[in-house]
């Protein structure tokens, strides 16, 4: 009867739920820097990626302190910059899937190079010169002719997950690529499935022929458990087991158990694998720039974050982190679960050596004094060597410092403190200094290499909201959040994502926790039974992403943490810190995490619709319908969606969407009351209660229904192939190697490989929203929670030199941009040089663009008419709601960018505006040019900004003048025989050393120093003070020389 009722109710057509990324001024994807800084020794310029502002910042570094020259708008989330020639740089845009080619003379983008998904870095190498581009999500390197970038010359597959940072040999013949998620030779053995027909995977851990005779879970210290099991606890569930390959090629657990026969040996089938199965563990790809042949350096670390070539030895030096995830139980891992390392690869033999970058740590204790912690290097993201190879410098994004190394790779001296979140570093050998970009506080630090000290720090514009700036440290700061100073939450939740590993963070001595307060099966008959409490020995669990988790409670795979506060014990119990964060700090952390969005889904079409003919390379049959290892056909994701939702019921009486709601894939935050779904009451801190299930086939009989938006990020662990790139796959413990394996389980009623391929295509394209939502009245299709996704078209760029001759594919893309923008599904901006000036525009519905001058609007045809081969226009799709900031009002102060520049104010400072202050004492006496001269000011009313430019206009041509000021207004008619009126009094200060001539513009302008106003004695302008300004100038009356004054201007400083 239930089945009949559910099926009948499933026929109602549901609405579509869209992404919640719309209508925000900044969307945070928390994209990682790769090579975000470059130094031009010849031109004494510094190039820096301003990631949140989507710009390249250019500094003059010919003096002792970097001075900002200009900026150039590029693509979304620029993360790497490389110079090519004297006046050209290439900027790699991660979200835009592009490279912006910047002409430094024109100060504009002159070409856009389209790349594969998530480009990370670019290097110029080979003869003839080629541009090698690492594409991290696509797992390949694209090769371009820099002079003809319409399409790549070649694509070089990389056998590793997320190839990112790049370098080249001294002669340019070899390109090196660091594989970010290389893995560390660990994998999981199945043991955590209950043996039901839901999922079928051999339970090899319980196999009597295994090292422990089938005991599951096996002991971790001889025949014992350390810590010992708590008396009175029920028996733990059977679980999986993490093993790691040693230097001899043996797969060992943390107790010395040898599982090699079951992983790669003759009994590999007992774990579902093929004989000879292996995880490649490639850390550095070595590409011959001429032949494009690839070899690899292996077994360095888990996360290869940055690399550089030693200028003398030619060795490749890599910095990153490695994890001891094979060690079981949280008490044994507390504070010591990770090492920050440097790998050294011999350029000739590719032999490797690995050094600990924190030799002052013994890892025998989880906590050391703060002074010792402050010596630690955490989350390394940049490395650079001096030209003589004597010193190497490594940035610690988590430790806010730069560590110094000798030529052999050993730490020397004391770390150099810099700004927050240092990533890229560039060496100026001739100047004896280094420049470091600090990602989190948007600044550039200058380091005196001889003194080993920071000597200046210059900020650049960061449009990030306070929630990001204040809360980010709780994720990354290793000195503030760990006992040894080298780890943080981001050590595993890397860049708010994952380390692609599994961990067994159970505690045999822990308590069993009640699961009854959670949303158990939405109270839906058939799903609301079979639950058990949370046992402390939970077995391996893969690291979960932090993207869009706030409002998606409960947390953890089991849903055993009600909210973010539930993680507080981990700061002491796992990271070794002295104390847990305060309530206020938890709120800051939550506010920051709440800003993080999923990026555009690379498998969706430009208009965010589902693909209907998606190739599925790397996806193979597991033997249910065709022989195991058979490549699957192209998939139709729309057909997959149709099978996912009612009236189809692929899993017995239930549809896929009954548990995995749209658009997130999580369980619903509702419960069934017998006739309809009703909201589940929020927790005391506003926590949601998304549903748990007990019927997923796991021995953990309370598992939160998993979100599916990052499914495409988990591919790479396949048991049908002998060589794979990842040791962990799907399900809570990573034991399900592939989507094909999961969907081929008996629980799912597919009829053949095509149906399987269609569902895999939908799983890959799942993230992105714009999917049908359920309803409270349909038990098979409950309503889902909105998702912080991004429209698939966001970031797309087209650089147009002549719209009339635009190729058909680009023209169709532009038409698609306009269509989506008209529906407010995306925003659109235009950037280029017009009349010799950098200009911007933001698209408004109806084919109209608002330019960066408030009084100027252009229709689409007029804008396109401005594009020429010498001055192209670049169109870019941006998240809806961000087009004003990215196109015409950078600091969102209401004064458009070109208006600000025309008026002398700074468009990158919200306190700086073109019309500052209030005029009084006017109109002024008419001068010899027949006009009343007028005072104006631009800049910031914030005194500490010291940003004020005074301007006097409508003066006679060629007239000399200067400015005066006083705290007091007044009125003196014709002082000293002047024609004009003095509008200030008492302690008048004269800026007489800054005399200007009005010239043909009939205006004078002076930037004044607010810290040294020339009163008697000199004084500084302070917040809360009002100052009055006026200009005195030479004039004539009836042919006789005289003087005159402008009107007055009063400014209230803050």
From TrEMBL:
Listed Gene3D superfamilies: YVTN repeat-like/Quinoprotein amine dehydrogenase
Protein name: Lactonase, 7-bladed beta-propeller
Segment forming the signal sequence: 1-18
Coiled coil: none
Keyword Signal: yes
UniProt entry keywords in alphabetical sequence: Signal
Record's keyword annotation contains Protease: no
Organism: Saltatorellus ferox
SUPFAM superfamilies linked to this entry: YVTN repeat-like/Quinoprotein amine dehydrogenase
Disordered: region residues: 209-234
